[in-house]
Design brief:
homodimer, globular, three-stranded parallel sheet, alpha/beta, 2 domains
Chain lengths: 293, 293
Amino acid sequence: MTATIINGTAVAERMRNELAAEVTRFKERHGYAPGLGAVLAGDDPASAQYVRMKRRACEQIGIESTAHVMDSSSTQAEVEAAVRQLNDDPKVHGILVQLPLPKQIDEEKILQLVSLDKDVDGFHPINIGKLAMKGREPTFTPATPTGCMVLLEEVGAKISGANAVVIGRSNIVGLPAAMMLLKANATVTICHSRTQDIPGIVKQADIVIAAIGQPEFVKAEWLKPGAVVIDVGTNQVDDPASSKGYRFVGDVDFEAAKEVAGAISKVPGGVGPMTITMLLHNTVKAAWRIAGE
Amino acid sequence: MTATIINGTAVAERMRNELAAEVTRFKERHGYAPGLGAVLAGDDPASAQYVRMKRRACEQIGIESTAHVMDSSSTQAEVEAAVRQLNDDPKVHGILVQLPLPKQIDEEKILQLVSLDKDVDGFHPINIGKLAMKGREPTFTPATPTGCMVLLEEVGAKISGANAVVIGRSNIVGLPAAMMLLKANATVTICHSRTQDIPGIVKQADIVIAAIGQPEFVKAEWLKPGAVVIDVGTNQVDDPASSKGYRFVGDVDFEAAKEVAGAISKVPGGVGPMTITMLLHNTVKAAWRIAGE
């Protein structure tokens, strides 16, 4: 069997086209564009690159973006002031605090300061709490796991009653992914670095979300034939055959796994493009909500 | 093999004696007692009974308690006013909103109104969010799952790296229990009504938390020999042999299960007495915190 390859790039492109049309409608109706305000503190080149990519994606669909760029010596008070300014700015509808923040900054306090109406990353503890609780609905859900859920839906995966295994328990992917699967009535198992027998657990899974950040960690022989596999990892590995000397691989051994899985997302071109798309989606949603629609 | 029987009554009694001594120290130091304020709305006899039991337990260890008792027709504004009054009362350190609230009341709004410093039930979405997130610590954790964790510790269960299965995903037990086990580095599976093969999943578990509210649902033959079983259920079943005509049983078939499990909690006398004890514990903790210690 060869798996259906889940093409996140194509899904993201379709969604971004829809969002662009929605932004146009929003502008016609309100006379201004939805706005995203980013906070980038520190000098991590990857963080700076992510913020650039997110701002470029905004621009492409007509969302206006601003950024508070602060150096790695910025203080708690300065980062808080940046968030407060964005909270108060009527032209900003979504706030993106690029993580990680410099080590002297209390991340928890910063995320809790973001206005719930503008928490398009879904990382405010109230939104995480509502995501966890039965019968509650967070205003926004984190972009990456939401992108995973959209890809599962895209490929027609049956989630209710399925055995879903999430490998990794980060606050930005694994943990919220587990909660979203649980809310969708999957039986959810959360594996992590202390788990004794990940292969044995994965073998039971109808749905696997791999978000552990280790190149090609999940092997084909661990998979239940027909399982739907969403690969969140993006790991840079040496590749002398490539002109750049490296390439990106996921957390799943894709080439072998696609012969066992029923469906599997690509890396790159799977979850990656969905993450930014879901941030755009949340920003447009925030703009409509704040406009009272 | 016959399991170690986990006697929650004995653990609770020991903890309550320690708490009584702590309350005495608190009073000597501050000249007033820790205080619990309860909100009871509606005419559910079980809820009224729970509040009575909790207040009696407070009294026994020297915590002062007050209760706002409102009838089933109380309005959102009235319940909110009761919570606000308790938030503002300097002699109240812990607030207990007895659930369920009457159906016209927005439970989510009420729980979110409780001062974080007084949220001794741990149900504020910020506390649930922090419980869910890695690297965050809620101020208070919900009483029943905390009681389960204490019993696991009491029996020397190794949690880190263990396979833990939580049956049930309620906001007050199953869901926070799963999060607490995950924080303690267990590999956690959450089962519920949509789960396809609960017996097969339980068979893998080193730790089982049964919180599904169905009498003797978990069978002995589902258990892995030596598993530690915490039974949260308290189900009333007919019993013509009893003078009352009924008795209480747990969610686990105790008599058969104790021949397979390594350790198992009793019903009654297991998790039940721990729940109120953990509420008392949280109230004393809240009083010290508010007093700045």
